[in-house]
Design brief:
467 residues; alpha/beta; five-stranded parallel β-sheet; three-stranded mixed β-sheet; 20 helices; 45% helix; 8% strand
Length: 467
């Protein structure tokens, strides 16, 4: 969706007379923000009497039910501030912005013209780069994308203060590191994302090219300047750990060249197991960490399974199993909630799926609170779990034994087998290809838990954010 620019004078002096910033609408309080993203299915009081066919409409709505994550508002405030900071020196109406555009938009057919330009001193080190990590299914990508979707993505400018300004501003973009981890794959993902939002044809223009690395870097940076991209979210960064023999793997250095060096704030997301290989090298700080330090100079966000005794878990449970429809039953007891948490390890996506399928099965059997005998709901929960979660149960058991890498492998295996049957599970990792297991030498570096990674990050001077 393209939004027509509506300018509001900034209350902050350093942002005034900057059309890239003054066109950004901002949600100013947490209550309005949570209301905007909260998605709840309203069940009628006589829902138990609905036939199964009609009831399916409500259960399908549960698939998109969403409870605002505790960190969502914090992420929103951080993203907005980082976007504004990145745009501060890039206003097309100022000399600094014109210099930025002239520096990175190149012309001509010569490959040399696409070589990496010298670091712009005015922009170097100004971009905010953060890192988010969490095991598959805890909702890190969903939360980040939900927050980003609260920020207009494409804003069309035509005139600013009676002066023509013809451009489509791409405020933010979200791309994945390809499973093969080729720089060309990353570039094509970038081009596809631009084409989807802007109606351009960059992907088809560059799909068949066999160009050197500098060409892709230069082209991406040119498009970043042309469309004034303000924020980049790069998902599946654990794939950066995979090297391909051709020497054209995407690396942390490439990400820095693509975005950080031209002052675009960036958020990278990865699994904790991938993060461990970023941060450690048999207990010693590796040269790679110096690049990581620059790329994660702002914040480290940790996403964890839901805690069983948290208010968020109670609200999450209520979202899928409304108290008014299970009043007086064992479903509302703490024992039942604890058992659900045990089966799912508090993984958001798995918990949501289990509760939804349990509710659907209970309705199909007409197992209402007034007819259900003691233990029947628990028995039904076990049947649903054994029928639909056989593969994932092994992965969760690995988590209980602190074997997160095995969990990631089994989750992606289950995701791949499900997608091959034409019904990709919504609870699985977004990658459709299973991850390759690390070598024994790499696995030796994976001892410990997520907390070790966070502590390593803090030792390197990163700030882990929980506010």
């Amino acid at each position: 969706m393209i939004h027509q620019a509506i300018y509001t004078e900034s209350k902050v002096n350093i942002y005034r007379n900057n059309p890239l910033i003054e066109c950004l609408p901002v949600i100013e309080n947490e209550a309005d923000f949570n209301e905007a993203i909260y998605t709840k299915t309203e069940f009628p009081s006589d829902f138990w009497s609905y036939d199964s066919f009609l009831a399916m409409d409500f259960f399908s709505e549960l698939e998109v039910a969403y409870l605002p994550h505790p960190s969502a508002w914090t992420l929103y405030r951080h993203f907005i501030q980082q976007i504004k900071s990145g745009y501060r020196s890039k206003s097309p109406t100022h000399k600094s912005g014109q210099k930025f555009i002239n520096t990175y938009i190149t012309h001509g057919d010569s490959v040399l013209e696409y070589a990496i330009p010298k670091r712009n001193k005015a922009l170097a080190g100004k971009a905010k780069c953060s890192f988010a990590m969490g095991i598959s299914g805890v909702g890190k990508s969903e939360v980040i994308n939900t927050v980003l979707n609260c920020i207009p993505q494409v804003i069309r400018h035509r005139e600013y203060k009676s002066v023509p300004l013809i451009m489509d501003q791409l405020v933010w973009i979200s791309i994945d590191v390809s499973a093969s981890n080729s720089l060309k794959g990353l570039a094509l993902n970038f081009f596809y994302a631009l084409d989807e939002k802007l109606g351009t044809s960059y992907a088809s223009e560059h799909r068949s090219l066999r160009s050197p690395v500098d060409f892709y870097i230069g082209t991406i940076r040119e498009l970043c300047a042309k469309h004034m991209i303000g924020f980049v979210h790069i998902d599946e960064c654990q794939h950066l750990l995979k090297s391909i023999k051709s020497g054209e793997s995407a690396t942390l250095e490439h990400l820095e060249s693509l975005f950080n060096r031209i002052g675009i704030p960036m958020l990278m997301t990865s699994t904790p197991e991938g993060a461990k290989l970023f941060f450690s090298n048999n207990g010693a700080v590796s040269p790679k960490v110096q690049n990581v330090r620059r790329l994660m100079s702002e914040r480290v966000y940790g996403f964890e399974p839901i805690q069983v005794d948290s208010k968020f878990y109670s609200a999450f449970f209520e979202l899928f199993l409304p108290a008014e429809l299970f009043n007086g039953s064992e479903v509302l007891t703490q024992e039942f909630k604890n058992y659900v948490h045990y089966l799912t390890f508090g993984i958001h996506a798995i918990t949501a799926r289990l509760l939804r399928l349990f509710f659907e099965a209970a309705h199909k059997l007409r197992l209402t609170p007034d007819v259900a005998k003691e233990g029947e709901y628990i028995s039904l929960l076990d049947k649903v779990y054994s029928q639909h979660f056989e593969a994932i149960s092994a992965a969760i058991n690995n988590l209980r034994q602190n074997e997160a890498q095995e969990y990631e492998y089994l989750v992606q295996e289950e995701s791949r087998s499900t997608s091959e049957q034409g019904r990709l599970s919504r609870t699985m990792h977004s990658s459709r290809k299973a991850a390759k297991m690390a070598s024994k030498q790499s696995q030796a570096r994976l001892n410990g838990n997520t907390g070790d990674v966070c502590r390593d990050a803090l030792k390197l001077g990163f700030k882990k954010d929980h506010n």
